[in-house]
Each structure stands twice: as structure tokens, then as C-alpha cells.
Amino acid sequence: MGVILLGACAPVASPQIIKSTPPTDGTKTSERIPLVVFAAGSLILPFTALEKAFEERYPTIDLLAEYHGSIQVMRHATELHEPIDVVATADSSLIPKLMYASNNPDTGEPYANWYIRFASNHLALAYQPDSKYADEINSENWMEILARPDVRVGLADPRFDASGYRALMAFALAEEADQNYHYFGPMFNDQFRMPITIFRDDDLDTITVPEVLETKTGSHIVLRGASIQLVALLQSGEIDYAFEYESVIQQHQLGMVKLPDAVNLGEEVNADAYGMVQVNLDFQRFATVKPEFRGERIGYGITIPSSSPHPEEAALFIEFLLGDEGRAIMESYHHPMFEQPLVDGFENAPANLQALCVPAGAQ
Question: Does pTM surpass 0.85?
Fold first, then answer.
């Protein structure tokens, strides 16, 4: 079993660490190959189950997992240069944006030149029976409910977590779908010391997140470094609603307001419409990359960094994830897998993974 770490290296959240437990088969941890996996927080429960099943299949491997917001996962690999074997992110576009464009200082080679788009999700709202206006909220009036000043809404920090900037996108997309532009302002204006702004053009809504994102005293928005941290706040009644992925909401048996297909970023048929919104992060956390995120269908991505100490074992883990047992585990945790995983940079991927996927664009 491995290490689970929640959160981001930011003042908005303190990481929670669950220490590993000794193997139960009598094998000393020091004799096992440590396989380090960094993954998005929305993968905690299915990947924890995958870890157990994978180690039963490969008892000589000790899988050590850490979970963060997706941008923070990337940063551990490309900015902090940690020896990571597998990265799995809730936004597959982060891999070419940040890993293709960043070179390992030890080799001068990019941190990655391939990735697999293996799963999707839908953005939704989580709530509890005693959340304010729980008996009133639905998929049509959710913006109006959330914008009420007495409703406390949990939001993942968009500077670190993909669900955070996707929540901003959802608001803009909903306003465009309804041609009603009266909710983004009340929801976000005057909630932060430096404002989140939106600029609407004929073919693109651009949302800009400031470098310093801190809520004001009395704000009805509660900010955390990773969306998974909002679950505990919701369960304790500290917030009324939280933007979460449908899989996470189902895993924790929370109430769910499904967002319309034009808004939830989960439907391929709406992919072009999702592209009508973009989030810009107004700071340069990554030295060589301009942090701009265009709306698209949610796709989880996974790859093996070129700096991986154990690339063969990493490929075994991804093969296990994409195989029948891994798929069954993911489905049991309500996390939808793509029927056919897609590989960008197909020729660079390990051969055992090429056999399970098709090149991106060939489907």
C-alpha cells in the first residue's frame, strides 16, 4: 500500500497524509520495487482499489500513490523534478501543454512525448439533504441558487485543480446556453481580494484568474486546493454545494444536481460548444508555458515521465488499468472509461500499451 496526499502546495489548503501500511504477505517493503504514481484527487478511491488488485497481481511491486489537483500533479513532475513513475491527470491536455514542453534537466529530453486519454467524467454539483435550498435546486435554476449570498459554495482552486477552472467554464457556458448573463457576476464578483474577470467576445468567453486568489472575509465561496477536499466540508455542513465530478459524488453517496449537457463538459456531441470558453491563469507558475485552458470534453490522461525510475513496472500498471480487471474496478467506482483508449504520440508509447489503444485521431 502507498502514500496518499491530498491538496496542493498553496496556502489555501494543508495536505492530508495517510501513511502506508506494511504489506500483509510477509514481503519486506525494502525488497519490493517502489512504483510512484501521482494522480488527480478524483481518482483516489478507484486507484486505491486498483493499487490493492495490482499488488496482488505483482507482489514484487509496492505502489506508492499521491493525489493532488491536476495542475499540481504536473508541477511535481516538471517543476519539482520528482522521480515519478506514472502521472494521471483529470485534464489530458495538461500533458502535452506541460510535459511535452518541459525538458528534464538531466537529459535535455521532454518529460513526455506520449499520453493515453483513457477516461471521462461529467461536472456536477454535490450537496447534502440539509444544504440550503436543497428542495428547490435543479438543473435549470442552479446558477441562481448558487449566486445567492447566503449559499456557501465550495470551489477547487483553478490555479491547481482542473475541476476549479472547469467550474468557471460551466458558469460561462450556462450563461451562453441561456443567453442570460446575470449570474457570473453575483457568483464571483466581490468574493476575492483580486477579482476573477470575464470578457465576452462573439466567439469566445475569456475568464481570467488573478495570480493571487484569496477569498474575502465573509465570502460565500470556500476555496480549497483540490476538489476532493470539498467533500469533507460538505459532509460536515460547512458548505452547501460543491463542484465535483459525477464519479466522486456517487462514490461518496452525496446528493447530485446534474448539469445540462451543454454545461457539464462530458459529452462529445457538445465538444465544439465547450470550446467557446477559455480560462487564463494570470501568473507564470510554469516557466515555459502560458497557462490557458480551452473548454473541451473532459478526458483523463496518463503517461510515464521520461524521468521514471521504473518505466517497465509503470507500463505494467497502465496495462492493468486498461485491462478487463482495471476497467471493472473503475466502473465499480462509477468512473467511466473510454471504450477505446486513445494515444497521442502512439509510436512513442510502450508496445504493451499500443496493443490496447488506437492512435489519437484514428478512431
Answer: yes
